[in-house]
Specification:
By secondary structure, the chain is an alpha/beta fold. Helices cover 36% and strands 16% of the residues. It has seven helices and six strands; from the N terminus they run H-H-E-H-E-H-E-H-E-H-E-E-H. Strands 1, 2, 3, 4, 5 and 6 form a six-stranded parallel β-sheet that branches. The termini are far apart.
Length: 229
């Protein structure tokens, strides 16, 4: 048995959907879902805090793009995501891993866009975010995320706190999945949502909130165009 085959077999056991299931049943245009879902994933270890708040603003703007849009926020705060599984290292006895419960949601055919949000630590994403993106190895068997629209939101402690570097790192992971990456769109076209948390609060950062709204609208706009095409 080859090393590659062993790794793929392991990934399947760890929660990856087998190739036949990942492709799903063939459907006609009439039977396909008419909705387009945009999923936001908060990768802060702190549940329901500033990163989640920024993503809610982003998703509400996405929802306003059209009646076909559905939104969902996945908050990874408190979840256990073991990035080592992507390298073929098994879980320790009794260890919990929560990635499989999100995998099917992300690969679903009606998901047109995925927006990853993370706090900024030392000019980069959280360790939880990195582990989550590493586990996307499960999608590479069939490139299940191909042509889904990708966007990113970063929340830092200062305006120039490493948000852009963090967004670029997330974009790089998405490009490896053959996703279509967007910025927040015109007129400024920043790399994504760039927010500042002051005293654990983003609600007063009007400049940053505007970038989150623009990003959400842009992700939904392109997802709708792709679906209609």
């Amino acid at each position: 048995m080859s090393a590659q085959h062993t790794r793929r077999t392991f990934l399947g056991a760890a929660g990856a959907v087998p190739v036949a299931l990942a492709q799903g049943p063939k459907t006609t245009g009439a039977s396909q879902s008419k909705t387009v879902k945009i999923i936001g994933v908060s990768c802060s270890p702190r549940k329901d805090r500033t990163t989640a708040a920024a993503l809610r603003v982003c998703l509400e703007a996405a929802k306003a793009a059209g009646p076909e849009i559905e939104i969902e926020l996945i908050d990874l705060g408190g979840m256990k995501i073991n990035g080592d599984l992507a390298a073929g290292i098994p879980l320790a006895t009794g260890e919990r891993d929560d990635f499989p419960q999100f995998e099917a949601k992300l690969r679903a055919p009606n998901v047109g866009g995925i927006i990853i949000g993370t706090p900024v630590y030392f000019s980069n994403m959280s360790s939880l975010c990195k582990a989550f993106l590493d586990r996307w190895m499960a999608f590479r068997e069939t490139f299940a995320l191909r042509n889904k629209v990708g966007g990113a939101v970063a929340v830092g402690a200062a305006r120039n706190g490493g948000q852009e570097l963090t967004l670029q790192a997330i974009h790089a992971a998405m490009l490896c999945q053959d996703m279509i990456i967007v910025s927040e769109g015109k007129p400024s076209s920043r790399l994504g949502g760039i927010l500042v948390s002051t005293k654990d609060d983003v609600s007063k950062d009007e400049v940053g909130l505007a970038t989150a709204r623009s990003l959400g609208g842009r992700v939904a706009e392109l997802a709708l165009l792709l679906r209609r095409a």
